[in-house]
Amino acid sequence: MSYKLIGGGCRNISADNLRTYSQSPGIPYTEAQEKHGKLQDMPVGLVVRYSSKGVAGAGSKAVVLLNETTKKKCLSIVKGVDKKTLEELRPKRKGVVPKDSIATLEQAKEHLNKYYAGNKSGKHKDMMYQKREKKTLFPGQPGSGKYLNPKGPFNYDIPGVDSFEEGSLIPGTNIISRGRYKAPPDQQARIDKVRQGDQSFMTEGKKKKAQMKEEDVLAKEQQKTEARKKRALSEKPTQVRYITGYRIFKDRYIKRYRDEHNESPTNDEIKLAWREEDNKQQWKDIAKKMIVNPKLKIKG
To answer: Which stretch of DSSP H or E encloses residue 54?
Structure first.
């Protein structure tokens, strides 16, 4: 069974109609399809309900309404299912637990043994080293249930399960905990020198890659510099905008018209006044003077 619910917020339904629709028993959607056919053939105000198990909208009711904009009929939810039922109907990944769930120390130990069943060396290696602080969970606290996920022991640590203080003996084994993983001294020295820019320890391939990165950075900086220079050359000093006699006449005419009529003239009225103007040369001469001296004030 397939259906589409539109307008779940019931925005266009009044409170009285919403109460009437929600209290109506309605008919199953499949029965409405058999009786009326397609959604567009169903009468406006018909209340349908969904009772099929396994459907995310099971237990909800909807009413057939007419969309005033598109002039098409649509379904608008008038009564929905509660959150708990909806969560039960939604498909979930197998074995995944909620993020805020809580795991006890015994549950974590049991899950660790189950995860590393048949892989004793992997289990010992996991217990030998500690993960980062943000990957460390504590039993009995919200969020510790993430350790019970299918790959929880691989992604997280719990103190007393697969995380122990450095130098301490791991219970049940003859292994000493090494704490967080640390690179050997010679390897760590090499890493520090490479981070500082020393390329003496780098292979030829890595040297070439580093050189190419430096060349790319320099080339991009050079391109930006050239682009800035071109923009600087293309930008001319601030020039006075060319002003026409019609523009000056228009400004003066609008001012006089507002003083006389307390409203602005239309464009057609301004153009008509300009056509009827006898002394147009006067305004053109003023415009030429304004180009030479833009601070020149025009007396209206």
So the answer is: none
Do 226 and 253 sit in the same domain of this protein? Answer: no
Whether the predicted pLDDT of 273 surpasses 80: yes
Of the candidates 62, 82, 85, 84, which has an alpha carbon nearest to the alpha carbon of residue 74?
Answer: 62
What lies within 8 Å, CB to CB, of 281 at 6+ separation is 245
The answer to whether the CB of 260 falls within 8 A of the CB of 223 is: no
With respect to residue 1, please indicate whether it lies within any of the assigned structural domains. no
**23 in Cβ contact with 90 (< 8 Å):** no
Tell me the Ramachandran region of residue 6: left when phi exceeds 0, alpha when psi lies from -120 to 50, beta otherwise.
beta
> Based on the structure, what is the number of domains in the chain?
4
> Which of 40, 60, 89 finishes a domain?
89
Residue 169 lies in a domain: yes
Half-sphere exposure of 115 (CA within 13 A, CB side): 24
Segment 202-254, tens digit of pLDDT: 677 777 777 788 788 888 888 888 888 777 776 554 444 556 788 888 888 89
Name the one residue in this structure whose structure tokens are 């969309």: 67
pTM of this prediction exceeds 0.85: no
Is residue 297 in a domain?
A: no
30 DSSP assignment: H
Report the C-alpha gap between 24 and 47 in whole angstroms: 7
130 strand-pairing partners: 180
In a domain, 100, yes or no: no
My answer on whether 201 and 261 are in the same domain is no
Could you tell me the residue range of the domain that residue 23 belongs to? Answer: 15-89
pLDDT digits (tens, 9 = 90+) for 154-193: 999 999 999 999 899 998 888 899 888 777 888 888 778 7
Distance CA 104, CA 141 (A): 9
Q: Over 60: is that where the pLDDT of 280 sits?
A: yes
